[in-house]
Amino acid sequence: SLSWIPGSIEQPHNLIHLLVGGLGHMMDNDYASFDPIFFLHHCNVDRIYALWEQAYPKYFMGRDGYKDKTGTTQQFKQIWGKFGWKDAPNRPGNPVSSMVDLKGDTPLTPFRKAGGTYWTSDDARWTSKIPKSRRFRPTAMPVDVNLQFS
């Protein structure tokens, strides 16, 4: 069923995969990137996060969670972990006990640092923490402006 899971930051994102993708590539994590809509969807997700970070610069969701209707701080959660059933502490069958907290220090598998440990949201929060060897470096490309038309 497509019911709301309080605290799941992934659920609105996943719902787009299911509603837009239907039974096509978008609904399967292993094949979603073969669908052109995938890139439009993820560009929009990045845009929304950037707007959110601009509006709330002192608030980091990975560490702080969110406020529920009563004003109580709740931790973001994801049913069965970051990759669904694949990294769940408990296998499907009892979804409530399979809710995994998503925090700033939750490993971002499969992405590893040079030492072999996994990157976390806290590690990747500021680009100043990312080694320069991992950053994009623009390269000069020669351009021939003297094109000849025949």
UniProtKB/TrEMBL annotation:
The keyword Oxidoreductase does not apply. One of its GO terms (molecular function) is tyrosinase activity. It is an enzyme of class 1 (oxidoreductase). GO terms for biological process: melanin biosynthetic process. Keywords: Copper, Melanin biosynthesis, Metal-binding. It catalyses: L-tyrosine + O2 = L-dopaquinone + H2O; 2 L-dopa + O2 = 2 L-dopaquinone + 2 H2O. It comes from the Eukaryota. It holds the Pfam family Tyrosinase. The keyword Transferase does not apply. Residues 35-46 form the Tyrosinase copper-binding domain. Belongs to the tyrosinase family. This is tyrosinase.
